[in-house]
Design goal:
Elements lengths: L4 H15 L1 E2 L9 H7 L10 E2 L2 E2 L5 H17 L7 E4 L5 H12 L5 E5 L12 E2 L2 E2 L2 H5 L1 E5 L10 H11 L3 E4 L10 H10 L3 E5 L4 H5 L12 E5 L10 E6 L3 E3 L4 E3 H13 L5 H14 L2 H23 L3 E2 L8 E5 L7 H10 L2 E2 L1 E3 L13 E5 L1 H5 L4 H18 L8 H17 L1 H14 L8
Parallel strand pairs: 1-17, 5-8, 5-9, 9-10, 10-11
Antiparallel strand pairs: 2-3, 4-12, 6-7, 11-12, 13-14, 15-16, 16-19, 18-19
Helix pairs in contact: 2-10, 3-10, 4-9, 6-7, 11-14, 12-14
The protein binds pyridoxal-5'-phosphate.
The site of pyridoxal-5'-phosphate has 14 residues, from helix 4.
Length: 450
């Protein structure tokens, strides 16, 4: 029988992930064990409800898996189960955040979160004048805080003053493109000073926090959400940690934040949990508790710092002048390069990064002014600082090449430009030459940790 075309595509994707340099900071390679758990028979089972309190029969093994996952999650982050609860059922980072809002807020309550073009996330709300882009902005009143325009880091005094003026019920920290550590102590103090809950969304940094390489938000936050598939190196999923020692009082009930979160996830916004994913998360949590993961997390940061340093030395505007974690944001405006052009040129050279908005963005999200890159996936492959220097040299060559391509104004002219650009770049000899070098370099490093 002919093989299903889907499997041919999966094989092609496996080659792409092996032969190119995956530098999107939110991506990583999950281990064979994680992938085995996610592809297991657990996907056949319905398990609505919580461990020991299901709405379906036949869940004795599922209960044991989910319980193990929760215990490992609390242990990894050093949390006392009397003080913290954890929900591992949210299907991904965005539904996890939604569940938190459903649990803690009434419709029209106020949220304060990071401005998207400065590096925030859509799931923290996003709207343009007169138009809610993210559903969160339709239901709740969201106001954004910004980075300080010259340093491009947070001015916590200003965030505190804004919180006093706006009086939110929830303050959120975390984002997709902020390269510096967040001061959770300050954010927690600001939230408490205005009677707001503090949600630390550490989707990106989860693995670095687990390893102790970035600061932990737990002493300062009421709720902590994270994705499991970025620096934590698990399957696509999420976890919500929330306080058992804090009581939520609404008009007709008094419950712990942890219970409110469980009820918001199910039956609030989801049906049956994906227990195969929960099993994969459990496997990745055990992997993340090893000394080799600690070495990994340290190397992730060392590699990202090396990339940032090399790009800065070459004259590129590295936002905030470096990084404390796994990601680097480059504002390409002073180099006369479009983020869109750079991302496509780099892809043609086998180097996969994001085009990204930058603080004080002057262009559109589809044709933004920067690129965002990161080290988690490269580091999983065993690459070190000297490898980063080599990769940075290829990137610098390709960024300099990118400067010749200027996106014109006007829809028609732009579409004509895009066709010409994509066809010429795919045939350019200097780009093809870098691609050849990148491919033979990348193939030397195993992708999926065993
Ligand atoms: C800070 C932050 N929160 C939430 C999410 C949403 O995660 P997901 O894509 O799994 O919905 C992301 C994803 O990049 C993120 O960066």
């Amino acid at each position: 029988m002919k093989r299903d075309a889907v499997f041919d595509l999966i094989t092609k994707e496996e080659s792409r992930q092996t032969e190119e340099l995956q530098m999107i900071p939110s991506e990583n390679y999950a281990s064979a064990d994680v992938r085995q758990a996610v592809g297991s028979v657990l996907m056949n089972k319905y398990a609505e409800g919580q461990v020991g309190k299901r709405y379906y029969q036949g869940n004795k093994n599922i209960d044991a898996v989910e319980d193990l996952c929760k215990k490992r999650a609390l242990r990894l982050f050093g949390l006392d189960s009397k003080i913290w609860g954890v929900n591992v059922q949210a299907l991904s980072g965005s539904p996890a955040n939604l569940a938190v809002y459903v649990a803690l807020l009434e419709p029209k309550d106020r949220i304060m979160s990071m401005f998207l073009p400065d590096g925030g996330h859509l799931s923290h709300g996003w709207h343009l004048p007169g138009k809610s882009v993210s559903f969160v902005s339709k239901i709740w009143e969201v106001e954004f805080y910004h980075v300080e325009p010259t340093t491009r880091v947070f001015d916590y005094d200003e965030i505190g003053r804004q919180a006093k003026r706006f009086s939110p019920k929830l303050i959120i920290s975390g984002g997709t493109a902020y390269p510096r550590e967040i001061d959770h102590k300050r954010m927690g103090e600001i939230a408490r000073s205005v009677g707001a809950y503090y949600l630390a969304d550490i989707a990106h940094e989860a693995g670095l926090v687990a390893a102790g390489v970035n600061h932990s938000p737990f002493s300062h936050a009421d709720v902590v959400t994270m994705t499991t598939h970025k620096t934590l190196r698990g399957p696509r999923g999420a976890m919500i940690f929330s306080r058992r020692n804090k009581i939520q009082v609404t008009s007709n009930k008094r419950i712990t934040l942890a219970d409110a979160i469980d009820q918001a996830v199910f039956p609030g916004i989801q049906g049956g949990p994906h227990e195969h994913t929960i099993a994969g998360i459990a496997v990745s949590l055990k992997e993340a508790s090893t000394s080799s993961f600690l070495r990994y997390a340290k190397q992730v940061v060392a590699n990202a710092k090396t990339l940032a340093g090399e790009l800065e030395k070459a004259g590129f505007d590295v936002v905030t002048g470096g990084t404390d974690k796994h990601l680097v944001l480059v504002d390409l405006r002073s180099s006369g390069i479009s983020g869109w052009v750079a991302a496509w040129v780099l892809e043609n050279a086998g180097i996969i990064v994001n085009k990204n908005t930058v603080p004080a963005e002057t262009a559109s999200p589809f044709y933004p002014s920067g690129i965002r890159l990161g080290s988690p996936a490269l580091t999983t492959r065993g690459m070190k600082e000297h490898d980063m220097r080599r990769i940075a040299a290829w990137m610098i060559e390709m960024l300099r090449y990118s400067a010749r391509w200027k996106i014109p104004d006007g829809k028609e002219k732009r579409e004509r430009f895009m066709r010409k650009f994509l066809s010429e770049v795919s045939e350019d000899k200097s780009v093809a030459d870098v691609y050849k070098q990148v491919r033979s370099f990348a193939k030397r490093f195993p992708t999926f940790p065993e």
